[in-house]
Task: structure prediction
Amino acid sequence: MSLIDRTDIGVSEWAGGNASPADYFALLKPRVMSLVVFTALAGVIMAPGQLHPVLAFVSILCIAVGAGASGALNMWYDADIDRLMTRTATRPIPAGKVTPDEALAFGMALSFGSVLVLGIVAGWFAAAFLAFTIFFYVVVYTMWLKRSTPQNIVIGGAAGAFPPMIGWACVTGGVSVESCLMFALIFIWTPPHFWSLALLKSEDYARAGVPMLPNVAGPDATRAQILAYSLPTVIVGLAPGLIGMAGLVYGVVAALFGLGFLYHAWRVYRVRDGIEARKAAGRMFGFSILYLFTLFAVLVAEHLVLGMMG
Result:
């Protein structure tokens, strides 16, 4: 049950009719989509076997569109709380540019279309995986976990971790230890990444009634959890080199960036007052993005270089 009655918001506040293509593009959460595209592409490239370049491009596009559909459906359902938070108040629905019904229709059409096309070009296992990911993000995370438990991002983070497994499945038709490891890295990275942002936006979440960890357990407990999750994140980040999935270059980069990740997590844990605490959380959030993108970029680049040399 929502902490805010979604029926309290009148249709007049969402007149719609003024939407531009840019407004519909914003519904897709393009910044989140960029991570999805990048990690799904990593799954396609790292997978054994080959996929025709055209089919690979269409597959990545379908995964991206499916992720965008999830974002649109998330904004449709969360419009009542988005309007209360400064971070989300300018999104197309609370801004009155797109109506909830338009966003719902848009998201559903993209969901069915992306799954159908992916099934045709890459196989129905990958398509079913994409459909499950959309369902998990919209129903399990958005409609249930987000408003009911401070562990929302811990469990719900799985939705953002599935794309490399879907990319891998597009090539192989299945899953493997390697694709599960890519999933695990994103999955365990998500809580310290997102809780750093939650420390900065705790007033927003409190205003909207979303039980994020800083609002339920307090900022100090959140800092401890960020530190606690950071060590296994770094260990999982090193794992591709340990199992032979990656080589020496990746191992060195993962170790150096892992030390940076731990340093920023330690700073968040130790610095607890005033503007310096906010700076520490902001730097942790920013570095966590750099950390994940760097590890996946080096993993893919090393794989491609070694493939050309071999």
The chain is about 75% helix and 0% strand. Residues 1-12 have pLDDT under 50 and may be disordered.
